[in-house]
Write a structure and sequence with these properties.
The chain has 14 helices and 17 strands. It is α/β, with parallel strands linked by helices. The chain folds into two domains: 2-196 and 399-413, Rossmann fold (3-Layer(aba) Sandwich); 199-395, Rossmann fold (3-Layer(aba) Sandwich), CATH 3.40.50.2000. The longest helix has 18 residues, at 83-100.
């Protein structure tokens, strides 16, 4: 059996979004002939932890843990909070390679400084190296592309790492396309492998049979609680400029109208950058009974909540066209309708179309468009006019399917040792 060493900052018990992609690789690559080793910190001081996720790591996975250097000076930790861990991890990386003897190494970022470790393994040991970009590094035609001296510094390292890597993974189609346009000399190295979900973690039937109905145009979604409010659920932290206030404005405008009662539940941290507090903003708009902040739940509890929501809420970073919020793939697994705020011409929209989920997309800063999207979804749920999910489309995003695609890339690199 061939071996692959995964180097990452995010792996269970970390509950950061990037941890689930790497966990999926560790779980499913053995089915395609790869034993897996993972080198990662057990936790990072500023990121969420879910101890229950550790139980999902296959026992045969070879784990190499490098603690975050909390003992290092505060100056160094502020100057390079991720780079300092990579510096301390380099000796353990060498030990892992000597002990495991992998055929391929994969580094996954952000943070993209982790790729220095993958590059070092390739240089010292002649092992083919896969550079996994869960989000774009620097080069992108997106309006959110960084500027200034820091971007120039990062661009230097990005070019250097791309030139050295034997394969480069993107996690969304626009990311692949735009990178190929901007850096055509690296185009042959590029592959698209999106994030995904595990079907086994979701209930086999997303709705109890008495509440799943069939109309003249096929099966449709009925409210899970027919006598209660239509329940919207946002699972995960609000970050990266995702402002809930336009959504709250839209909900406030619908209060007292003929739209059925609404209930919006938020799981995870709700303190938004810039001092915006979701609960306080809801109270200002008189939405204390409609907006519920429930705090962080375990990963498995969150999936169960997703599966019983009438509509799932997805908030993307304003103006972002490249990449999607990681929770979208769990939403695909839950198989529920989606209210999304994001760009209608970006990866978010492309992925939603590919998933077959009933959805509505509105610009993040357009309260009127969000209000109209909510109205359409609420009426569709209440009246039974939303189409059913296409299960065949959803299977495209199963983590086992995606691990098989990664195995194909790894197979192509084996035997290419320098």
């Amino acid at each position: 059996m061939a071996g692959v060493l995964l180097i990452t900052y995010h792996f269970p018990p970390s509950a950061a979004s990037g941890a689930f992609r790497l966990l999926g690789f560790a779980q499913h690559l053995p089915k395609f002939g790869y034993r897996v080793g993972v080198l990662a910190p057990p936790t990072l001081p500023w990121e969420p932890v879910d101890v229950s996720l550790g139980a999902r790591v296959p026992p045969e996975t070879m784990l190499y843990r490098v603690d975050y250097p909390r003992h290092a000076s505060r100056f160094l930790r502020r100057l390079s909070p991720y780079g300092i861990w990579a510096w301390y991890a380099r000796h353990t990386v060498a030990h892992a390679v000597r002990e495991m003897r992998p055929d391929v190494v994969l580094s996954s970022g952000p943070p993209h400084v982790v790729h220095l470790l993958g590059c070092e393994v390739q240089r010292r040991f002649g092992i083919p190296w896969v550079l996994d970009c869960r989000d774009p590094w620097v080069t992108t035609t997106d309006v959110l592309a960084p500027r200034g001296w820091k971007a120039a510094y990062e661009r230097f390292w990005e070019r250097r790492m791309f030139a050295r890597a034997d394969a480069i993974l993107c996690n969304a189609p626009h990311a692949h396309q735009q990178l190929a346009l901007a850096l055509p000399h690296f185009a042959e190295k590029l592959h698209t492998i999106p994030n995904g979900y595990d079907p086994d973690l979701f209930p086999p039937s997303r709705l109890p049979s008495p509440q799943r109905a069939v109309g003249p145009e096929g099966p449709w979604f009925a409210p899970i609680r027919p006598n209660g409010p239509v329940r919207f659920l946002h699972a995960g932290q609000l970050y990266a400029g995702r402002d809930p206030r336009p959504l709250l404005d839209a909900v406030a405008e619908l209060s007292g109208t003929q739209v059925p009662p609404l209930r919006f539940e938020f799981l995870g941290r709700t303190e938004v950058a810039g001092g915006v507090n979701l609960h306080e903003e809801a109270m200002k708009r008189g939405l204390g009974e409609s907006i519920i902040c429930r705090g962080q739940l375990s990963y498995q509890q969150t999936l169960a909540e997703m599966s019983t929501a009438d509509v799932l809420v997805l908030m993307d970073t304003p103006k972002r066209r490249i990449g999607v919020p990681a929770k979208l793939y769990e939403y695909i697994g839950a198989g529920r309708p989606v209210l999304a705020t994001g760009q209608i011409d970006g990866d978010l929209a492309v992925t939603l179309r590919q998933s077959g989920l009933p959805c509505r997309i509105a610009r993040p800063d357009d309260a009127k468009a969000i209000r109209d999207a909510i109205t359409e979804l609420v009426c569709g749920v209440a009246n039974g006019t939303l189409p059913s999910v296409c299960d065949e489309a959803r299977r495209r995003f199963a983590r086992e399917t995606l691990a098989g695609e990664l195995a194909t890339v790894l197979d192509g690199l084996r035997g290419a040792k320098r």
